[in-house]
């Protein structure tokens, strides 16, 4: 069953072909601007509301919801029509509310430190399933008198591996939900053709690259896609994106104790980041069941940041959110399924996202 947000205006008009012409526009506004379910559209006749409830059921069924940080972090585990499960995280900050959404059920990228990938890849999400996650978060934010302002595509899956549906969702969020392109961030582990394609789009969204290593030997181990798109090709695509969009580039760097947090890693990262003017988001790993390598200790995280800053790189440390509610991508799904994560070693296929959840600094 498709999401109500999978329909375009023409499809919705076709569904309501027996109604006055203004009804389709009314329902469209209710779904997007009003964030309302059909049963909540009190400006629509009751019989039509009931009909729409049957014809346009939600694509996301809430399996569980977890709340942490005094209500400032909310994580959902959703079941889709075919039994696939995805996660969404809403994070409230002093000056913004950000939702981290999934673009795939599972992930096939094979990064070695990721809770999502330990469950394997199931399928791409439809555009409507992506949009509906944002709507759910916006409704939740509204219930506490907040407004959802930012969307980051950093949840389950590799967004640029599901490009067409991702971009359809981005366009819908911008055009119909009124979210600024400058408040939409697409993260990628380094799908070079997708980055170059993104550079040709009309909307200047933010680009965040999950880098995690600044030499090909180490990145081949941590991020297996690097063997297909090595750093030279990835950095060239980043330069192309910067030239086309003029937006700040972010590098995501999950700090792994004794693996990529050494002084030599600082030097290599600085050499890549400085010429691009890239901002570096340092991510202390959340605990990930079955992953034998630990995140860098707090003192080393601070030292790594300070060394980067001294090297002329703008760097911030993300504050992990929701550790106590399995908020890192893939953790909640694994716990609810009751099939703890499998042990993995560096270089093994275990997914894409670092064991964390947080929003880019200054998003």
UniProtKB/TrEMBL annotation:
It catalyses: adenosine(37) in tRNA + 2 reduced [2Fe-2S]-[ferredoxin] + 2 S-adenosyl-L-methionine = 2-methyladenosine(37) in tRNA + 5'-deoxyadenosine + L-methionine + 2 oxidized [2Fe-2S]-[ferredoxin] + S-adenosyl-L-homocysteine; adenosine(2503) in 23S rRNA + 2 reduced [2Fe-2S]-[ferredoxin] + 2 S-adenosyl-L-methionine = 2-methyladenosine(2503) in 23S rRNA + 5'-deoxyadenosine + L-methionine + 2 oxidized [2Fe-2S]-[ferredoxin] + S-adenosyl-L-homocysteine. The keyword tRNA processing applies. Residues 341-363 are annotated as: Disordered. [4Fe-4S] cluster binds at residues 107, 111, 114. Residues 93-324 form the Radical SAM core domain. NCBIfam families: rRNA_mod_RlmN (TIGR00048). Belongs to the radical SAM superfamily. RlmN family. This is Probable dual-specificity RNA methyltransferase RlmN. It comes from Acidiferrimicrobium australe. The gene is rlmN.
């Amino acid at each position: 069953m498709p999401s109500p947000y999978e329909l375009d205006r023409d499809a919705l008009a076709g569904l309501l072909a027996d109604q006055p012409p203004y009804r389709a526009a009314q329902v469209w506004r209710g779904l997007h601007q009003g964030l309302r379910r059909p049963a909540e559209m009190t400006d629509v006749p009751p019989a039509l509301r009931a009909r729409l409830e049957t014809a346009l059921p939600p694509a996301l069924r809430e399996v569980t919801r977890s709340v942490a940080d005094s209500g400032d972090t909310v994580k959902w585990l959703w079941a889709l029509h075919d039994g696939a499960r995805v996660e969404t995280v809403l994070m409230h900050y002093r000056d913004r509310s950000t939702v981290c959404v999934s673009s795939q059920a599972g992930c096939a990228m094979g990064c070695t430190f990721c809770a999502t990938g330990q469950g394997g890849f199931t399928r791409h999400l439809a555009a409507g399933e992506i949009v509906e996650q944002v709507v759910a978060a916006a409704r939740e934010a509204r219930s506490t008198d907040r407004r959802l302002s930012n969307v980051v595509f950093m949840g389950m899956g590799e967004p640029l591996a599901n490009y067409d549906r991702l971009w359809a969702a981005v366009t819908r969020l911008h055009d119909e939900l009124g979210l600024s392109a400058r408040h939409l961030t697409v993260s990628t582990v380094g799908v070079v053709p997708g980055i170059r394609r993104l550079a040709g789009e009309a909307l200047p969204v933010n680009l965040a690259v999950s880098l995690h290593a600044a030499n090909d030997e180490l990145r081949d181990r941590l991020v297996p896609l690097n063997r297909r798109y090595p750093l030279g090709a990835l950095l060239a695509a980043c330069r192309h994106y910067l030239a086309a969009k003029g937006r700040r580039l972010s590098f995501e760097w999950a700090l792994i104790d004794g693996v990529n947090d050494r002084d030599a890693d600082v030097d290599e990262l600085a050499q890549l980041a400085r010429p691009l003017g890239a901002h570096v988001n340092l991510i202390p790993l959340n605990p990930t069941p079955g992953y034998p390598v630990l995140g860098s200790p707090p003192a080393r995280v601070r030292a790594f940041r300070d060394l980067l800053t001294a090297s002329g790189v703008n760097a911030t440390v993300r504050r992990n959110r929701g550790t106590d509610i399995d908020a890192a991508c893939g953790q909640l799904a694994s716990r609810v399924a009751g099939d703890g994560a499998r042990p993995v070693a560096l270089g093994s296929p275990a997914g894409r996202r670092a064991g964390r959840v947080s929003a880019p600094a200054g998003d």
